[in-house]
Amino acid sequence: MNATKFNAVTSPYVTCLAIITGLIVLFVIPAQAEFDLDSKYAGDYLTGQSNARLLALGGVGVAIAQGPAAVLANPARLGIDYGHAVSLMHADRFESAVKVDHASYIRALSDNRFVGFGLVRQGVDDIPVTRLRDPSQDIGIDNRVIRIGSTGASEYAFLLSYVGERSWGHIGGTAKLLYKRLDDTNAYGLGVDLGYARSFGQLHVGAQLRDAIVSVLTWDTGRQEVIYPTLRMGAAYEIKWTRMYSTIMPVIEMQVRGESLGDPDVLALHAGLEYRIRDIVAARIGYDGSRRNDPALEPVSDALTYGAGLLVGGVQLDYTFIGNDELGATHRVSVAVRWN
């Protein structure tokens, strides 16, 4: 593809991103803002994956994400093994207390260049709003708490990704528009993810730097939350078992969270094992080390993940189960459709 044609294809995406950035800088970020540098979990809703296959393998992704799942997992793998594709995922976390939804779409431009779009939403609905029957008195038998209504909390991310191929690997990037709503307050922010991926035969390696230049969420109250960079590096190796028409793939990934520097949970190990038969049916098990840093997760089994997958034609269906003795189980289902 010549330079003129390439610029004509990609310029609408660049222009759109520039307009969004300008509007946020001019109208959203207040002149006097109160920075919260200790907002450790401000970007936690984006630390997972947008595909049940990756979650079943312990939350890995930088070395094996494919197609739409790569919009969030590693933009450098956006077009690997895919042409045009769309993916949807829904999750009920902690016995449906938290709802998570992902939607992604990728399309090929040409010359091994791809563009992708993604939407992430995590929310808790129907949160009770309460007060004392008589606010002027202390709580007691004759002055109990009553419900006067309900509210909700939602977190969104709108993603725009692009990847190009070089002789030394694939390089990709994702621009993120972030939005949060808590009752009647709102927050906006911007973020950038960078990714790299390369394959050496059956060996696949990848790396992603999320929130590469530090992301800032600005609330309409003037408070600002900082999302620090997170580095993820991983590798996977495909072992072909020709006699059984099968493939066994171990995968491992290391996560370094910038917001946890100096804390015991700064490092987290993710690992998984996938067994595929004729690339149609798959069984998976994983270990999510980041969940071991949660004090609510006492048994080692709480860090294990399980799943299965089915590929029929251009339709891929994946399921993941993640247990939690304290907060309840999490079920995630994703479906991807690809063509061309």
Characterization of this structure:
With 340 residues, this protein is mainly beta. The chain has one domain (3-125, 152-339): Porin (Beta Barrel). The chain is 10% helix and 54% strand. It is built from three helices and 18 strands. The chain has helices at 3-28, 52-56, 70-73; strands at residues 34-36, 84-93, 98-110, 113-132, 145-166, 169-182, 185-200, 203-210, 215-219, 223-227, 230-237, 239-241, 246-257, 267-277, 281-288, 304-312, 315-322, 330-339. Strands 2-3-4-5-6-7-8-11-13-14-15-16-17-18 form a 14-stranded antiparallel β-barrel. β2 (84-93) and β3 form a beta hairpin. It is globular and about 75 Å long. It starts with a helix and ends with a strand.
Mean pLDDT: 82
Low-confidence stretches: 1-11, 23-33, 295-300
How is the main sheet built? 14 strands, antiparallel, barrel
| Topology pattern, helix = H, strand = E | HEHHEEEEEEEEEEEEEEEEE
Q: How many runs of DSSP E, i.e. beta strands? A: 18
- What spatial order of strands do you see in the largest sheet? 2-3-4-5-6-7-8-11-13-14-15-16-17-18
Bulk shape = globular
CATH topology descriptor: Porin
CATH architecture label: Beta Barrel
Q: What is the highest CATH level, the class?
A: Mainly Beta
- What distance separates the N and C termini? 19 Å
CATH homologous superfamily, by name? monomeric porin ompg
The domain count comes to 1
Please identify the structural class as seen in this structure: mainly beta
The radius of gyration is: 22 Å
Q: Provide the β-strand percentage band.
A: over 45%
